[in-house]
Write a structure and sequence with these properties.
about 120 residues; alpha+beta
């Protein structure tokens, strides 16, 4: 699957039985940071029909259980908003870890590594 995706797709594959028949279940997880795009074209054997298009972004349909290219500007905006929100959360988390933002309410203030070390030594005495 990841031969056709960038960045790589996170997924699980498992076998399940339902009413006496075996099914393969592929659970694809939502992207972590940036949307996954198609890395290269894929044509159906014999018919040469284009199945995957390089540069396209595929999503689950709201209406039926299928995956298709993003069908409209509304869905594209939703995807972009989700990616922006994830990026912003990651930035805020990193900034907080680096001491660049005030701590969130109810969290103890961060102390420098040197102060932390000195406190540890003091506690040992």
């Amino acid at each position: 699957m990841n031969e056709y995706a960038t960045p790589s797709v996170s997924f699980d594959v498992e076998s399940q039985e339902h009413r006496g028949k075996q099914f393969i279940v592929i659970r694809v997880y939502e992207f972590d940071e940036i949307p996954v795009l198609c890395r290269k074209d894929l044509h159906a054997p014999r018919r040469r029909e284009l199945v995957l298009r390089r540069g396209a972004c595929y999503v689950r349909s709201h209406h039926k259980p299928e995956t298709s290219e993003i069908p409209s500007e509304r869905e594209m905006r939703e995807l972009l908003e989700l990616a922006i929100d994830k990026g912003l959360r990651k930035f805020v988390s990193r900034a907080r870890e680096a001491g660049m933002t005030p701590p969130m309410e109810g969290t103890p203030p961060r102390i420098s590594e040197q102060a932390f070390f000195e406190k540890q030594i003091e506690d040992m005495e």
